[in-house]
Amino acid sequence: MKNNGITIEIKEFELLKDIISTSQINTDKTYNLSIKRLSRELESAKVVPYNKMPLDIVRMNSKVTIQIASNIIKNFQIVIPEKSNLNLNKLSVLSPMGLALYGYSVNDEISWQFPSGINKIKILRVE
């Protein structure tokens, strides 16, 4: 992780805090763990104004290419929960994968708890 924690634009920081604070308690253990981890990461996040936001950071509406395991490549767009549509590769920021990617940058490798267990993800590209 080249930025020693996640980097987030100030308006998105406030939006995420609002979304997290109003998200309902979920019976899905993985979802709850992901929300708690993002909440912890927000506490130490580097919060920057829009004009100082690096272009290679995963944020709302980012299109991101990732590598899972050794050779599985996936493309997603990170969106607010209401715009999530897996058929269009639009991934909610509150999904386990969205939470895992948010605030990280190109070449970061993240270990994250998913329903299938802990997986490593490498961010290959952010648009």
UniProtKB/TrEMBL annotation:
<keyword id="KW-0251">Elongation factor</keyword>
<dbReference type="InterPro" id="IPR036953">
    <property type="entry name" value="GreA/GreB_C_sf"/>
</dbReference>
<dbReference type="GO" id="GO:0032784">
    <property type="term" value="P:regulation of DNA-templated transcription elongation"/>
</dbReference>
<protein>
    <submittedName>
        <fullName>GreA/GreB family elongation factor</fullName>
    </submittedName>
</protein>
<feature type="domain" description="Transcription elongation factor GreA/GreB C-terminal">
    <location>
        <begin position="55"/>
        <end position="127"/>
    </location>
</feature>
<keyword id="KW-0648">Protein biosynthesis</keyword>
<dbReference type="GO" id="GO:0003677">
    <property type="term" value="F:DNA binding"/>
</dbReference>
<dbReference type="InterPro" id="IPR023459">
    <property type="entry name" value="Tscrpt_elong_fac_GreA/B_fam"/>
</dbReference>
<dbReference type="GO" id="GO:0003746">
    <property type="term" value="F:translation elongation factor activity"/>
</dbReference>
<dbReference type="GO" id="GO:0006354">
    <property type="term" value="P:DNA-templated transcription elongation"/>
</dbReference>
<dbReference type="GO" id="GO:0070063">
    <property type="term" value="F:RNA polymerase binding"/>
</dbReference>
<dbReference type="InterPro" id="IPR018151">
    <property type="entry name" value="TF_GreA/GreB_CS"/>
</dbReference>
<dbReference type="InterPro" id="IPR001437">
    <property type="entry name" value="Tscrpt_elong_fac_GreA/B_C"/>
</dbReference>
<dbReference type="Pfam" id="PF01272">
    <property type="entry name" value="GreA_GreB"/>
</dbReference>
